[in-house]
Amino acid sequence: LPRLVREFVAQNNTSQIKHVIQILSQEFALSQHPHSRKGGLIGLAACSIALGKDSGLYLKELIEPVLTCFNDADSRLRYYACEALYNIVKVARGSVLPHFNVLFDGLSKLAADPDPNVKSGSELLDRLLKDIVTESNQFDLVGFIPLLRERIYSNNQYARQFIISWILVLESVPDINLLDYLPEILDGLFQILGDNSKEIRKMCEVALGEFLKEIKKNPSSVKFAEMANILVIHCQAADDLIQLTAMCWMREFIQLAGRVMLPYSSGILTAVLPCLSYDDRKKNIKEVANVCNQSLMKLVIPEDDEMDEAKQSTTLPAEPTSEESVSKPEAVSSGEPSHCGRSELDITALNQPLSFPCSSERIQVTLNLDGIVQVLDCHLHDTSIGMMTRIAVLKWLYHLYIKTPRKMFRHTDSLFPILLRTLSDESDEVILKDLEVLAEIASSPAGQTEGYSPSDSSDVRPGPVELHVPARAGQLSSSGTKSLECSPSTPTMNSYFYKFMINLLKRFSSERKLLETRGAFIIRQLCLLLNAENIFHSMADILLREEDLKFASTMVHTLNTILLTSSELFQLRNQLKDLKTPESRNLFCCLYRSWCHNPVTTVSLCFLTQNYKHAYDLIQKFGDLEVTVDFLTEVDKLVQLIECPIFTYLRLQLLDVKNNPYLIKALYGLLMLLPQSSAFQLLSHRLQCVPNPELMQTADSTKPSASFKRTTASNIDYTELLQHFEKVQNKHLEARHQRAGRAEQLDRRVVL
């Protein structure tokens, strides 16, 4: 047969050569008899050897019957077919490349063959084909990718191993740029990474590692946007190796592509945020996720806050990489996953058509703030998420309010309820971050609305609250936006401040445990974040109209304790102690009217502001009040408080008996109210130390004291304040009688 074929080649008798090949194919290789098929395969291989370099002209006719035998039920026949194809390919070399897809398809099936001899033969053929591809520069990668994309989803281990080995070979060939087609096969590679075989997983890790190295070297040629959703999906995989690898890729993508990744922020956050609460068993994933989160946050800039509709797609210079810039812009918002649950992210989403504007120098990026806020809101509502995730969500919200305040205030009404509920969180760190966000909402100039009136009109006085915050240097940048170094408070409180105070007090009223355990902590932190005077002024104003008198009394007691004991309120205490300015006197009157809900706190406020005569007048009215155990307990606490450093100035004024007679009378009045107790002994010993006025007379004792001057110059109508105190206490008395009556009726019903 070889001699006959050589003669035909020498005679250039093409028709006879085709006739021989046809007979070998139809009558032998495709025969029903197994021995005939074996003979046909041997004959086709011999024919190919005889043709030599001319075999390339007849490859289609030579290869097709051999590939058909790959599906033969007889393993020996499959082996003969493998051997025949090896000889055909060995002779033809580079000429087989136009038929590469059918060869690859046949080999991928043999790679999973159950017979070891067939598998061994296919490996020899596979190595030969790889050598040919490696040494050739005519490989049709474009035509091969669809087949590779199809085969890469095989679940057979041997087929997967075969696929990965070919990807590694193609990746190593300098003339073949597989990176351009990485979006086509990346999802399949991550699927293979979850294989049960350690060897296959290792091979896939190597392949992905090589691709990532190539991406770092040539970021300008990478289609980041086309692969973003793929990474988002696999960053949520249950398999630790897949999740860690995908997260590492996401970290590099964010750092290399910069703002190109912004349209996918909501999907990235969906994948990254839950990882921040992982324990030490997944420490590596947690650390990488944290870097992703921080890097993504830095991509949001003040320019994203453009209000002009025409500028919502902000055109910005590309983020530079180590040596180059990203030159292929991809801005896609339609394919971005923006839901919190992982079930929403499906592989089928990747089949959506993507469009990319062509520009090699500038990137058109749209920040999908709605999607980001939706994800953050979803995570805040999810009670099962960990503490670190909740903190990260609140950091994101704070960052967005700093960078894009105008756009964020569109979402404030929907975010406000969950932010208030978060104040009940078990973690102090979460509450601190939550307060930072709420303080920024309450103080940002972007939150000011014209003609604002809070939704609950029953709790709001007719006119706007007059709030004052002293301007501090360095709080605002020259452009009017907040600088990163400044505190959240700004020189003006916006429309949300009063609404925040109303809702905070409502929450304390409905959740008394929160007030008891965290109330003081929350208010003290707010005094640091905002202006303490505004907070106390507004809360006092709201409590003045509080219908639940028992809650009003409890809240006033809490505020008074904070005012008298917290180091954060040192400046406000000094302001009230002197009452030198109209603002301080106005604040005193505002506080006084609400403090009247609690008689003892009212007296302590008078002590703080050195209104000793009025304190004495108030104590005289205590004889008309219902003295309860709670009342005496509060008097006991006030006596203890007088012995604290805060009232050092008051104790020193006891030396000036002549000019402070009402202070001594007020303290004696408290003494007369107390039963024989430790507090009684404490105050009695203090009053015994008051010196004899005659012994304390000096040459200038006839001059009025500074405190006397301040009191007479303050122009405060104390008579009206005293009448207000009596009015409020009468309301409390009526309320107590009503509660007692209801309790008595309930007892009767129980007896009946």
TrEMBL record:
Cell compartment(s), UniProt: Endosome membrane; Microsome membrane
GO cellular component term of the entry, any: PAS complex
Keywords attached to this entry: Endoplasmic reticulum, Endosome, Membrane, Microsome, Repeat
All residue ranges annotated as the Vacuolar protein 14 C-terminal Fig4-binding domain in the record: 512-690
Top-level division of the source organism's lineage: Eukaryota
Pfam families: Vac14_Fab1_bd, Vac14_Fig4_bd
Biological processes per GO annotation: phosphatidylinositol biosynthetic process
Region entry Disordered, spans: 308-340
UniProt function note: Scaffold protein component of the PI(3,5)P2 regulatory complex which regulates both the synthesis and turnover of phosphatidylinositol 3,5-bisphosphate (PtdIns(3,5)P2). Pentamerizes into a star-shaped structure and nucleates the assembly of the complex. The pentamer binds a single copy each of PIKFYVE and FIG4 and coordinates both PIKfyve kinase activity and FIG4 phosphatase activity, being required to maintain normal levels of phosphatidylinositol 3-phosphate (PtdIns(3)P) and phosphatidylinositol 5-phosphate (PtdIns(5)P).
Quaternary structure and partners: Forms pentamers. Component of the PI(3,5)P2 regulatory complex/PAS complex, at least composed of PIKFYVE, FIG4 and VAC14. VAC14 nucleates the assembly of the complex and serves as a scaffold by pentamerizing into a star-shaped structure, which can bind a single copy each of PIKFYVE and FIG4 and coordinates their activities. Interacts with NOS1.
Family stated for the protein in its record: Belongs to the VAC14 family.
Identification of the protein by name: Protein VAC14 homolog
Organism of this sequence: Pelecanus crispus
